[in-house]
Every structure is written in structure tokens, then in C-alpha cells.
Design a protein that fits this description.
The complex is a heterodimer of chains A (399) and B (288).
Chain A lengths: L4 H22 E8 L6 H20 L3 E3 L2 E11 L4 H13 L5 E3 L3 H15 L3 E3 L15 E3 L5 H14 L5 E7 L2 H16 L3 E8 L7 H9 L4 E5 L2 H13 L6 E5 L5 H7 L6 E4 L17 H12 L5 H20 L4 H10 L2 E3 L2 E3 L14 E5 L2 E6 L15
Parallel strand pairs in A: 1-3, 1-4, 4-5, 5-6, 7-8, 7-9, 9-10, 10-11
Antiparallel strand pairs in A: 2-3, 11-14, 12-13, 14-15
Chain B lengths: L1 H30 L6 H19 L3 H22 L9 H23 L14 E4 L2 E4 H23 L1 H11 L1 H6 L4 H23 L10 H15 L4 H22 L4 H15 L12
Antiparallel strand pairs in B: 1-2
Classes of the chains: A alpha/beta (399), B mainly alpha (288).
């Protein structure tokens, strides 16, 4: 019997098409560029823990419901080595080579903003875990959705707290890391302080990678502030807190963001953590009931502890939050079609363990109040909002 | 008074910078190897001190020579077993090799110790020296003094012992030293080991001051590089002078130009110095 090459080829093509379609039908592929190595690797590791906890729960429950189908979740990671240009390349690779269905953002405002242009170009919805600066969301993009509320939701309640609890506090000093998110946050604090009649007596920036802050803090001390605000990341804020104590800087309120909400920060500065105020978008004490795969904030915290042996911080929680938001949107759309899922994301109204999530037209979450935190007796306590407060705000000087 | 405090801040960080740079300068001067691994060795020294403090309560300032000794063995081993094979090759090959070793060590530490920032917390803390209008953190003073003592011992070893003379002889002329019966490969291994010793000591001393993380290595390497060029390549007194100079320049740079541009003034002066005196403040011609 003579077999022509054409039927054989046709068969192969059919077989390949068959396997592709079954491949496409039984799982949902999500691309996640992560800073596994480099300066942001602590945060990259935390995000990954959040993603994987969500993935475990979804897949254990059979997968994401899309119409009458159940799709298992597969996450595809690439390490962008904490380098934003690499994150952009990898996001493009995930979309064009790996053909992912959706994207999770890289870490932080800067890399998210850069990568969102790629997601927009290909029309792939991207859920941002860790971007809160308005500058990320002011590009008119339709495919970017962030679960963090904007930076003013940190500065406003803390400024209000200072104003009401310390009516004599007048002088504010701000030291900001010259980086997209920390600088944007510092600008919001300046606005919130000025709005309440406080005088900003010091506003300086420090360069990324600054090892020693003594000179900046010496100048800050000379302005004799009542309220000191320093923005940056965990390594900056460990050094700043210690050097502020070395220089005997004493303000009535010491606000450091982001760092003190992490247990590593508290461990690294020890007693100097006392009474430092900070804020974060999530804390294990929040009590939301949810429609997501976790069921409630408490259940999420419990499962996280089971898997990783520690309480989740806001970065770990945000990793799981992007997962549940995407899942709820897909399930509501009953489809993985980008347009349908995007429409559901725009509608919002997701009840998640992280908080009620809806997005402003710009794509940034605008539907919940993040807790203001203070370190008391070595523990993170919630001082605002009142409904979930675990302790009273303290104003004693710390040095 | 602000100026005086800023000057003292510069001195206090300058002593630490000197500790960071000396080992790097020695390896560059003797082996003509730009040791990209240096920053990672400092971080490893920091971890050794951190775990010694956590497990046995040993003060990292006293543990510094032990951390240095461990790294000496590691450094001499790496030079003897790996780098010696490419010493005769062009300069870029050794640079590339130490770059690869740096990636390997950084990622090994990332896997072993995680990326979390740690810090040694002394209980009770060492406090500050309060001199009225100015304050100086005690830990920086102790770390600088111990660092300078160790640097002094290293300089003494190079000047007065037969081993030291051999290292200097190899630095001056490798072939002539070999003709005189000096085992050049062994001398290289010991010199690299001494560079690693100083890195280990610096890491332990810094562990009470700065947070420890594998990702901190690039920052230390950058500082070491600038200090060596500023002070003069291959010169131990040059590295010390360069360290103090960078500390003070950065400190006043932050005061005059704002903290954002602390390094700007340092780099401007560095460019000026390279134009006027390319061998650095105390460098000798021929080591560049």
C-alpha cells in the first residue's frame, strides 16, 4: 500500500491541532515576571508565595469555572533580575512565545508602569499586585488593574491621626527615596500635611542604593521636626531607623513606609521598632468575608500559616489577591476572552479576602481603606480604621 | 556645629569604607585581578558573624578575625584551584571568571539564607558617644578601630615577614620573583586569601551597622572600586586614605548638593583626580 506524504502531513496537523485545543481547554496559563534575584528578590519571593497559595487552592478545588468547564491554573514565571528593562522583555515573551492567557505584573510601581505598555499593546489584561502610584495608572490604559489603593490612602489617615492626636505638632520632615513609588508617596504626605496646616520644614530625596544616611538625617535633625516621614524599602528603612537613633533624632511621630509591616524589619531593628507608624494594604487582622476561593481573610491567613509557617504580610497577600480577582472576573465572564474578562474587571465589585475590590476608570483600586499600623511591643497593631483597630495610637518619642 | 557633625559622620563611615576596600586593593595590586567576587565575600563574612551571634552569642566585632580566617581558606582555595588556571590569560578573562564566581556565590547565599534582610542586634546596644553638640555611634568607632588594627597588621605582615616580601616581589615582577625561587602560584593563592580575609573581617564589622543580604554585594563592590581608584591601586595606605576621603566627600556632598547627590561630588572629584593624578592619591605608577 502506498501512503502519500500529504495524508500523513494532514494527519499530523490535525493531531497537533487536536492536542493544542485540548491543551488550551484544560488549563489557564498566567504569565508572571518576578524579581527572583537582584535587589527586589525578597519581594519577589513573597509575591511568588502568594501566587502559589492561590494556585494550590484553585487547583485543589478543581480549577477555575469557565462556563461548564474547569480550568486548572498554570503559572509561568521568569526571573527579571530586578531589572525593569528585562521585565518588559519577559512580559513580551510571555505573551508572544508562551501565549499566556493573562499577566500578573512585576513588583512595584516602576516596573509595573513600564510593563503595562506591553500588556496594552497586545490587549492582555494585567493585574498589578504592587503598584499604588497614580503615575502608573494615568496612561489611559485599559488592560491594567491594580489591587492597591493609591498612595494618598496612606498619607491621609496618618496625617489626620497626627492632626487629631497631636494638635501641637507643627513641623514635618520628609526624606524620600528617589524612586517612583517612594517619591510619589512622599509627595502625597507633603500634600496631606500641608492640607492640615502643618509646615513641611524638610523635604529631601536620597539616591537609590544609598548605603549611609547620616548626613541627610543630620540635616533633618537640625530642622527639629515633630513628625518624621521616611519612604523607601526595607533595607533603606532598617539603616535609617538605626541611624536616626544613633543621631538621637526624636520626633513625636515616626512614619516609615514600606518596611515596618514586615516581620524582618521588626527583627532587624529590635526595640527601635517601637511606636513606628506605617501603613499597608493588608494585615492579618482584617476581617473580610469573601466570595473567592479562600472564603474569608481569616481562612486565607490560616492557610498561609499552614503552608509557610508565618503570618502573611501585605506583599504575600497581594500575590494571592491578584489571583482571586482574576479568577472572579473569569468566572463571572464565563470565558477567558480578553474583552469579556476586561469588562468584568471594569465592573468590579469583587468580594475578596483582601478587601472589596473595584477599580477606578484608571484601573487603580478605590474600594477599601488600608489599615494604619503601629509597632507596639514588637507586634504590628492596627490603629486605624476604628472597626478593625487592635490598639490605640501611641505618640511617645522613641529615642 | 552642623558642619562638625557632618565631618564626624564622614569620618565614621570612612573608616568602614577603608575596611571594605583594603582587600580589593591588595588583590588588584598583587594579582592584577579586578575581584568582582569581593562584595560577595564581604556579605558572606556578614552572614558568618550573624550566625555566630545568633547561635553562640559572639559579638561580631570580636568575631571579625575568625570570619576573616574562614574566608582566607575559601579565598586561597578559590585562587589555588580556579583562578590560578587563567592568571596568564588576558585581564578580561580573570574579570569574567570572578564575575561568574560572584554570581555563583550570591545565588548560593540567596538559596541558603534567603533574600530577607538580617541584622545583628547587640543586647545591650553599644550606644553613642555624646560629645555635647555632636554624637558619634559607638559601633562605628569600634568597627573602624578594629578594622584599622587589622589593616595595620596586614601592612606589617607585608613589610616585615618573608611571606610579605614574597608577595611584594611577585607584585613588582612575577618572572624575576620566580627566578629567585618564589612559588608564584602559592603566593597568588595566599595574596587572594589575604584579600578574602579582609573582606570577611569587613563583613563581620559591618554586620552590626548595615543590614545583611546577598543583594548588598554589588553596593560594597562599587564602593571598593571607587575607593581604590581614589586612593591609588594596590596601595594599602591609599585604600585607607581613599576610604576616609570618600566618606567625608560624600558627607559634605549630601550637605551642599542634597542627599540625592551625595555621590555626585565624590564622582566629580574622582574624575578631576583621574585627570590630574591618574595613579590616585597614594598610588604608584604601573599598578593601573
Amino acid at each position: 500500500m502506498k501512503l502519500g506524504i500529504r495524508p500523513l502531513l494532514a494527519g499530523l496537523v490535525l493531531a497537533a491541532a487536536g492536542s493544542t485545543s485540548s491543551f488550551a481547554q484544560d488549563k489557564l496559563l498566567i504569565g508572571a515576571p518576578l524579581p527572583v534575584t537582584g535587589a527586589l528578590s525578597p519581594e519577589g519571593t513573597k509575591l511568588k508565595q502568594g501566587y502559589e497559595l492561590w494556585q494550590d487552592q484553585v487547583n485543589a478545588a478543581g480549577g477555575i469555572k469557565v462556563g461548564d468547564q474547569q480550568l486548572k491554573v498554570e503559572l509561568r514565571y521568569y526571573d527579571y533580575q530586578s531589572a525593569t528593562p528585562r521585565a518588559i522583555q519577559l512580559a513580551e515573551k510571555l505573551i508572544t512565545d508562551d501565549k499566556v492567557n493573562f499577566l500578573f505584573s512585576p513588583f512595584g510601581s516602576g516596573a509595573t508602569k513600564a510593563t503595562s505598555a506591553v500588556a496594552e499593546k497586545y490587549g492582555v489584561p494585567m493585574i498589578a499586585s504592587s503598584a499604588s502610584s497614580v503615575e502608573v495608572f494615568d496612561q489611559g490604559y485599559k488592560n491594567l488593574f491594580g489591587v492597591y489603593t493609591d498612595n494618598s490612602t496612606f498619607s491621609e489617615p496618618i496625617a489626620e491621626l497626627v492632626k487629631t492626636k497631636l494638635p501641637d505638632a507643627k513641623r514635618v520632615a520628609i526624606l524620600a527615596r528617589n524612586d517612583l513609588y517612594p517619591l510619589s508617596l512622599a509627595n502625597e504626605f507633603e500634600k496631606s500635611a500641608k492640607k492640615r496646616g502643618l509646615e513641611v520644614v524638610f523635604f529631601e530625596k536620597y539616591a537609590i542604593g544609598t548605603l549611609d544616611h547620616a548626613s541627610a538625617l543630620t540635616q533633618l535633625r537640625a530642622t527639629n521636626p515633630d513628625w518624621i516621614i521616611v519612604t523607601g524599602y526595607i533595607n533603606d528603612l532598617i539603616t535609617v531607623r538605626k541611624q536616626a537613633a544613633d543621631l538621637r533624632i526624636s520626633g513625636s511621630v515616626f512614619t516609615l513606609i514600606n518596611g515596618p509591616a514586615y516581620q524582618e524589619w521588626i527583627d532587624a531593628v529590635g526595640p527601635l521598632a517601637e511606636n513606628v507608624t506605617t501603613a499597608s494594604w493588608f494585615h492579618p487582622v482584617v476581617k473580610y468575608q469573601s466570595d473567592d476561593v479562600f472564603g474569608s481573610s481569616a481562612k486565607f491567613v490560616e492557610l498561609f500559616k499552614q503552608k509557610y509557617g508565618s503570618e502573611p504580610d501585605f506583599t504575600q497577600a497581594s500575590g494571592a489577591a491578584v489571583g482571586v480577582v482574576l479568577q472572579l472576573a473569569i468566572e463571572r465572564a464565563g470565558s477567558t476572552d480578553h474583552d469579556k474578562v476586561r469588562t468584568e474587571l471594569q465592573k468590579g465589585g469583587f468580594k475578596t479576602f483582601f478587601g472589596p475590590i473595584s477599580f477606578a476608570p484608571s484601573g487603580i483600586a478605590n474600594s477599601y481603606v488600608p489599615p494604619v499600623l503601629q509597632i507596639q511591643n514588637g507586634k504590628v497593631e492596627v490603629v486605624v480604621p476604628q472597626e478593625i483597630a487592635t490598639s490605640e495610637f501611641r505618640t511617645a518619642p522613641q529615642n | 556645629m552642623l558642619w562638625l557633625q557632618v565631618f564626624v559622620n564622614g569620618l565614621a563611615v570612612g573608616g568602614l569604607y577603608a575596611c571594605i576596600a583594603v582587600g580589593f586593593s591588595l588583590v588588584w595590586g598583587v594579582l592584577s585581578v579586578i575581584n568582582i567576587l569581593h562584595g560577595s565575600l564581604i556579605v558572606l563574612g556578614g552572614y558568618l558573624a550573624f550566625f555566630a551571634h545568633q547561635q553562640w552569642g559572639i559579638n561580631p566585632l570580636l568575631f571579625a578575625p575568625v570570619a576573616g580566617a574562614v574566608l582566607f581558606v575559601l579565598g586561597a582555595g578559590v585562587q589555588g584551584l580556579v583562578i590560578n588556571h587563567v592568571m596568564a590569560r588576558p585581564f578580561l578573562i580573570t574579570l569574567l571568571l570572578t564575575f561568574g564566581l560572584n554570581l555563583f556565590l550570591d545565588n548560593s547565599m540567596l538559596a541558603l539564607f534567603s533574600a530577607d534582610y538580617r541584622k545583628v542586634l547587640l543586647d545591650p546596644p553599644l550606644g553613642v558617644f555624646d560629645l555635647g553638640a555632636i554624637v558619634v555611634p559607638a559601633d562605628r568607632i569600634y568597627a573602624t578601630v578594629i578594622g584599622l588594627i587589622l589593616i595595620g597588621l596586614l601592612a606589617l605582615l607585608l613589610r616585615t615577614t618573608q611571606l610579605g616580601r614574597a608577595i611584594i616581589a611577585v607584585r613588582m615582577d612575577r618572572d624575576a620573583a620566580a627566578l629567585l625561587g618564589i612559588d608564584v602560584r602559592r603566593t597568588y593563592a595566599i595574596a587572594f586569601g589575604l584579600g578574602a580575609f579582609m573582606a570577611g573581617c569587613a563583613g563581620a564589622l559591618l554586620s552590626v551597622i548595615f543590614p545583611i543580604s546577598p543583594v548588598a554585594s554589588a553596593g560594597y563592590l562599587g564602593k571598593a572600586f571607587v575607593i581604590c581608584v581614589l586612593g591609588g591601586l594596590g596601595s594599602i595606605p591609599g585604600a585607607v586614605l581613599g576610604g576616609f576621603a570618600l566618606g567625608i566627600i560624600e558627607s559634605f556632598g549630601a550637605l551642599f548638593l542634597g542627599p540625592e547627590h551625595a555621590m555626585t561630588l565624590a564622582f566629580l572629584l574622582l574624575i578631576l583626580l583621574l585627570a590630574v593624578r591618574p595613579s590616585g592619591l597614594l598610588g604608584k605608577r604601573g599598578f593601573a
